[in-house]
Structure formats: structure tokens, C-alpha cells
Amino acid sequence: MPLRTLVVGLGNPILSDDGIGWQVEEALRRQGAGSAPEAAIDILHACVGGLALAELMTGYDRVIVVDAIVTGQALPGTVSHFTLADLPGTLNSSSSHDTSLRLALQMLRACGAHVPPESAVAFVAVEAQDVWTFGEACTPAVKQSIGAAAAVVAHLLRAPLY
User: Fold this and answer.
1) Domain count within the chain
2) % of residues, the chain, pLDDT over 90
3) pLDDT at 95
């Protein structure tokens, strides 16, 4: 039986570069990623974090999250790949109204939910230039990275889990 895999395009599609996850998710759909029934790959987009994001992961063996990131250490449009353990702190990684994704997954696991192990949660992050301006278009450098980010996701989908 194939591993159940979820690809989540994360972000806010009306905040310029923050919508890159949604745009990569749409590119993957156009390329036919996950379209074969035997692939057991679901692709969706979401505007959630913490516990709500962890709940989306319930029932999956592997998850790939595509999102914008603002590190200030790379040029806009730079595509990076992180594991959950290696994910750098981000602007919205913690909130007094929610919990971190790592803690949310631990809580769900402790309650008996089937969620992927930390080693099976990957992030494909695109360095954003502007996540504050209302608009559905990404900045040019970030828009040019859609294909590269989709290629990283496609590579991860073909790679063995461990």
C-alpha cells in the first residue's frame, strides 16, 4: 500500500508573496501531480497554522508544506527545503492564540491520532519579498520561483520517505 501523502500550499492568497504556496499548489495540479489514483497524494491549499494545520495532517504518512518564508538571509525567490526539526523560526511560528506545529503534532499523536512523524514532514519555502501588500500577484522574483518550488516538491514526492 502506498504512503498517504499530503501536499499543502500554505499562505494567504491576497497578501502578495504570502500566496506563493497556493500558486505552487496550482502549478502541481496543472502538472498532474497526485492525479494517479495509485499515487495516494492529496494536494490542497490552506490559510492555517499550528493545531489547524496539524489536524489537516491527520491520516497521512508524509506531508510536504509549501509556504513563503522571510529570513532576510536569501534573495527573494530563493527556494529552500527544510524538515520540521530544521525549520527556522518564522514571523508566524508561534502565537498566544495557537501552538507550534511541532507541539500540535505531538499532542495529536499523544491522543492516538495517526499523524506523520517529524521526519516525514517537509517544508518547501520560498524567500518572500513582500508579505504585507494586499494583492493576488507575487513580486516578480517570487513569481519566477513557482516552477523551481514545484520541482522540489515533485522530487520529494519521488524520494523514499526515510
Assistant:
1) 1
2) 71
3) 52
Which pLDDT score is estimated for 1?
A: 67
Element containing residue 107 per DSSP (H, E) = helix 101-110
Number of CB atoms found within 10 A of residue 89's CB:
9
If one compares 118 and 1, the residue with the highest pLDDT of the two is: 118
- Residue whose C-alpha cell is 518550488: 149
- CA gap 1, 58 in Å, rounded: 18
Global pTM reads 0.90
Distance CA 92, CA 132 (A): 13
Question: The domain spanning residue 77 has which CATH number?
Answer: 3.40.50.1450
What does the buried/exposed string (b/e) look like for 2-12 if buried means 16 or more CB atoms within 10 Å of the residue's CB? eebbbbbbbbe
Owning domain of residue 59 = 5-158
